[in-house]
Design a protein that fits this description.
GO terms for molecular function: metallopeptidase activity; peptidyl-dipeptidase activity. The chain has 4 helices and no strands. With about 90 residues, the chain is an all-alpha fold. The longest helix has 20 residues. The two termini are about 25 Å apart.
Length: about 90
């Protein structure tokens, strides 16, 4: 699988391994369902509220690029990677 390097699109590599071109989180969700149920029950039992507060995000959460100052190459790469990953999720 690795010997094909970048000559093989990742979806084709996935197909060669798994026989499908679809990626699903369902097996992970199924696997962790008992843990999720346990945590939800413990949170309810202990009065733990999960989620965002009323002030999240704060009104000033957005800062323009000029207010951010300069970003390191690592920060730019991380932001680009997150953006690409998000776009891929939305498209599929």
């Amino acid at each position: 699988l690795l010997e094909s390097g970048t000559s093989l699109h990742w979806e084709e590599a996935l197909f060669k391994i798994s026989g499908t071109r679809q990626i699903s989180a369902k097996p992970l969700l199924d696997y962790f369902a008992p843990l999720q149920a346990y945590i939800a029950a413990k949170n309810k039992e202990n009065g733990v509220s999960v989620g965002w507060g009323n002030n999240c995000p704060p009104d000033d959460w957005y800062k323009s690029a000029s207010q951010l100052g300069s970003l390191s190459a690592c920060q730019v790469f991380a932001l680009a990677a997150i953006a690409c990953f998000t776009v891929r999720l939305i498209r599929h």
